[in-house]
Amino acid sequence: MHELARCEDHGDHLIVVNSNTSKRSALSPDLYRVLVDALDLAAREPRITSVVLRGEGGYFCAGGDLSLLATRREMSRDQRLARIEELHDVIRAVLICPKPVIAAVEGGAAGAGVSLAFACDMIVADRDATFTAAYVKAGLVPDGGLTSTLAAHLPRELVMRMTLLGEPVTAERLFSLGAISQIEPAGNVVPAALALAERLGAGPSGAQGRIKALVNSAHTSSRVEQMNAERDAMADAIADAEAAEGIAAFLEKRRPDFTKARGTT
Questions:
Q1: Most C-beta atoms within 10 A of its C-beta, which of 18, 56, 164, 171?
Q2: Quick one: which of 52, 199, 16 has its CA closest to 124?
Q3: Which domains can be identified in the chain, with CATH numbers?
Q4: pLDDT tens by residue, 58-90
Q5: What is the pTM of this model?
Q6: What number of other Cβ atoms are within 10 A of residue 45's Cβ?
């Protein structure tokens, strides 16, 4: 059992809850283990179609625990690198998971909590939530792939204000820039994220995994490399049971039932 995080099984999706409420859902080894285990289970289990990540107590994630970070000053550089890699392993696990991962952001996200939210495939946020990358105020720099992620989603000047000044940005502004998927009134974030998970669950899970991989590689691949990746993914997708069901449904003018093809792709 883990005290600061838990995984709830809802049949066709998993909910990972960051329950470190005394520290505004700061990152913890418990969260790392529970989240990675949930992502691994989602990758292996056909019935699971998505993973939802949320914080408990009204805040998504406050990032690294500064009281723990302070102890790293006494570590060797190799030890410090190893601790940062623990976060990066989690971020990579979110990125490579073949099932969609949804961040349900209530209250806000800060520091590596922003990195974690933006590593997810979709963000559903409280309209009044704030996203703050104020590493600079502690004399630190972003990690968890945050500079790459923010640069891919936002104008350069806004990224500079967020990271050089540590200025918070509202979910509403990020939504207007197309950087997050959905904003909701306070109290409706988790239900909306679960509704989104249900919508994803009705779709072709194998195709969704291939699409996720293609979108994630598009930022770092050349156009020719990306076309080659699309070619390979399409050739594989056509042979799947999901495609057989989807094409048959289109030709028969009916709604596809991808659930019966799940697990046979």
A1: 18
A2: 52
A3: 5-201 (3.90.226.10), 205-261 (1.10.12.10)
A4: 999 999 887 777 788 788 999 999 999 999 999
A5: 0.94
A6: 14
